[in-house]
Amino acid sequence: MSTSYQPIDRPTPLSTAGFQRIITYDADNTSNQDYDNTRISGVGSTGKGILIGMLSAFGSAALVAIILAIAYFFRYTTRGRIFLDRIGRPGEYDDEQAFIKEEEEALAEMDEIQKAEYLRAKAFVEANPPESMQTDISLSQFLAIQEKGVSAWEFEPEPEIANCFVEGRTEIEFFDAECSVQSNLPIPKQNEVYYWEAKIYDKPESTLISIGMTTKPYPLFRMPGWHKYSAAYISSGHRRYNQPFSPTTYGPPYVQGDVVGVGYRPRTGTVFFTRNGKKLEDVAHGLKTQNFFPTVGANGPCNIHVNFGQMGFVFIEANVKKWGLAPMTGSLAPPPPYGSEQGSILLEGGREGVREGQGGYLIGGHGRSVSAQVRLARHTTSPGPQRSPTDISLAQLSLIDSNEDVGEGTSTAAAAASASYPGGPGLGFVEADAPPEYESPVESPPSNGVNIERQPLLSPNRGEPPIPSYHEAVGHEAGVFTYLVENLGVKNVQFEELISLEPESLRQLHPVYGVIFLFKYPTGEKPSDTPHDGAFDFGAAENMFFAAQTIRNACGTQALLSVLLNKEDEVDIGPQLKEFKEFTSAFPADLRGDVLSNSELIRDVHNSFARS
């Protein structure tokens, strides 16, 4: 292999070392590789320089931006500041500053009376912060709720505010000036939801009503919703939540005859409202620590009745789920029976008087004394209250210790008393003739020697009381039932009286949607859980609409609805009954009965029929 030392004819590649590269001719591939590497190396160095310059420029810009951000943070923000709008806008305000600005703007638009009332309320809130007083349910209040149930709640107007009057615990009448009235007890927190309603019985157009909840203490010369902590639904269709200046549009305005409901969920602290049984959106959340009191306010004459649960609600869900503030009746045991004498002050004093030698003025031959007749108290199953001895001076009493349960005295008791305490000087007993025997009237049945005082007031041997017939109850026309279903919204249905159940009679009345039987109630028969026919079709009850009867004196209305609501495909039952069936289809029979008893349409129609 020969070697040549002559220069290459191709152009000399760029060399940064200042000399010309000499390579062999046979190593052409190697020389090309070196040429390419040299060219790539030169271009890479230039790119690195450009990249370094760009990074320096961007780094400087980023550093300047960071410095500006730090300066802005320390210049325009403070610790704990809350922005109400987007960042980057100068002049941002937090809650307190925004309220001060809104207050200044509102005060500039108020007249002197409004300004004075607002400043008075502001001073009251500053002097009496919300929840500054003990408002938890005390032991005595808890026992009152157990004893009275929902009747323990009532509205108590402030004595200093004479602009409203409360009658019957929950009926509120407002006069000319603005004021509010709170309940005596707060809303409990044990259940999932608590609910109450207020019906507007009388409201002029110029009167503004506010219905909601407030904490204590609260300036009751202002309406709920205006100050902390309170939320309210206003009759103008707005809502207020701690807002004395600008209300928020919320729902439809309510007028005379409307029913406004207030609901509270203690676990989430949510407050919501309803109007005429329709739920509106939630007003507030997170109010879990405060004790809220039902509050109603107005700035003019009006009349409002509040339902804490003592009656059925217009809001059906609250009825079905029993969202009232407490049960309708108390849960404490009833007082001891009248036969219980243990712990009686009168009896204890009587024993002491007898032991001290005090006698009784007893009429011989009769079991009655001049003042009273008692017997020693026997131990009963109902202990009754325990009382300490008393020094009350009592009249002279005759004492009878008998094992028989005598009432006002019998001949046996009188004889025993005469034998135990014979008449004699110094004992105060005076012999006297027995009173004449009572004579029965001629038409009275003979007593047959039985003590009249022992006879029951109603003898089981007497005949059954007369039960009114069908004609006496509803008249000679079945049109009364037709009128009833027409008022329920049912169309093209009428009732006919059946004399017999022969097929020919039924064919003449075709089509027949149902038959209602009228049975005489067996008053003298013992009650039994077994049906009289001994059979019950459970499958049929599951495949048809049936509502259990939970109210009295409504069997006729229940029977009508049982027929009509199972013939929806053949009979036009109207939109309200159709809505009722759709709402209760998934309920068991007992809940259907509860919803039926609280349906305003069915209740009004039934009551009007009962009065006719």
Automatic annotation (TrEMBL):
Quick check: keyword Membrane in the entry? Answer: yes
**Does this UniProt record's set of keywords contain Glycoprotein?**
yes
Alphabetically, which GO biological process terms does the record hold? protein deubiquitination; protein transport; ubiquitin-dependent protein catabolic process
Q: Which Pfam families match?
A: Peptidase_C12 (PF01088), SPRY (PF00622)
Q: Which reaction does it catalyse?
A: Thiol-dependent hydrolysis of ester, thioester, amide, peptide and isopeptide bonds formed by the C-terminal Gly of ubiquitin (a 76-residue protein attached to proteins as an intracellular targeting signal)
EC number(s)? 3.4.19.12
Briefly, what is this protein's role? Components of the endosome-vacuole trafficking pathway that regulates nutrient transport. May be involved in processes which determine whether plasma membrane proteins are degraded or routed to the plasma membrane.
Name of the molecule in the record: Protein SSH4
Query: In which organism is this protein found?
Result: Cryomyces minteri
